[in-house]
Design goal:
By secondary structure, the protein is of the alpha/beta class. It has 9 helices and 10 strands. The protein has an 8-stranded mixed beta sheet with strand order 1-5-4-3-6-7-10-8. Strands 2-9 form a two-stranded antiparallel ribbon. Strand 6, helix 4 and strand 7 form a beta-alpha-beta unit. The structure holds S-adenosylmethionine.
């Protein structure tokens, strides 16, 4: 057992929600049941919860699936979790930063990861990018996020929320915006609306590129000046676009290209070696 992994029993302590850990605890029982119904956990799932907090979702997950790994940064929450759930022998707490956690260590043959969590909103975008890098090992992910982040994940070309997060998430996953959640469902109530999203990694990538880091760079560069035409915004890439060897219309703006347009352009600029 690693030094940050806990299984022993502990004594609950008082806990005050901390802003710096993005702590907004779920208090709406009906909503918690709705979230867990959407996840539909099964007894033999390889479930992982990010940010269990005081266990609002954790308890119901454990009723369906006794093997549960949770990753919680706030060490003051560990005794509270242990006091409630120590009777579950397959309940493991990893007291660490999910942004640095190697999710591949939890992968088991025949049991891809099912990752869930009411995520701390202050780190949700970098955390999603971190998790996308494990997509081959993941069955699906269900997250509570700020509503705008869910809209960005699910956005299509032309939407005001369409951008780098939409394209990279949809490169790897199908994205379903499941339902919205009002601030009153939390204690303390956040200042923003929230929503539940389901991300299901594609078993076969629909639009693969030869060089993933090039796609990431292409999309980042295009959206760094989203109002300009691609011919202008992509100057920083130092690619010769003058000979018009590209099937994509470079007079378009970043926000008007589909995922397929981006992957096509990427493969035309940087073909397989
Ligand atoms: N799941 C609980 C609930 O729904 O009531 C708590 C959700 S709260 C929005 C986010 C949780 O993530 C908190 O428990 C917080 O301590 C934890 N957290 C914050 N930053 C984290 C990080 N970098 N890694 C792991 N957990 C983190």
């Amino acid at each position: 057992m690693s030094p940050t992994q806990h299984r022993a029993s502990g004594r609950p302590t008082e806990h005050k929600a901390r802003k710096r850990f993005g702590q907004n605890f779920l208090v709406d029982e009906r909503l918690i049941h709705r979230i867990v119904r959407s996840i539909a956990p099964r007894a033999d799932d390889n479930l992982i919860e990010i940010g269990p907090g005081k266990g609002a979702i954790t308890g119901l997950l454990l009723e369906h699936c006794e093997t549960l790994n949770v990753i919680e940064l706030d060490r003051d929450l560990i005794p509270i979790l242990l006091a409630q759930f120590a009777k579950y022998t397959e309940f493991n707490i990893h007291q660490t930063d999910a942004l640095k956690f190697d999710f591949a260590t939890l992968w088991r043959d025949q049991a891809p990861l099912r990752i869930v969590g009411n995520l701390p909103y202050n780190i949700s975008t970098p955390l999603i990018f971190h998790l996308l890098s494990y997509q081959e090992k993941v069955q699906d992910m269900h997250f509570m996020l700020q509503k705008e982040v869910v809209q960005r994940l699910a956005a299509v070309p032309g939407d005001k929320n369409y951008g780098r997060l939409s394209i990279m998430a949809q490169y790897y996953c199908s994205v379903e915006n499941l339902f919205e959640v009002p601030p009153e469902s939390f204690q303390p109530a956040p200042k923003v609306d929230s929503a539940i999203v389901r991300l299901t990694p594609h078993t076969v990538l629909p639009h693969p590129v030869h060089h993933l880091s090039k796609l990431e760079n292409l999309v980042r560069t295009a959206f760094s000046q989203r109002r300009k035409t691609l011919r202008n915004s992509l100057k920083a890439l130092e690619v010769n676009f003058d000979d018009n060897n590209f099937t994509i219309d470079l007079t378009k703006r970043a926000e008007n290209l589909s995922l397929l347009d981006y992957t096509t352009l990427c493969n035309e600029i940087w073909p397989a070696e």
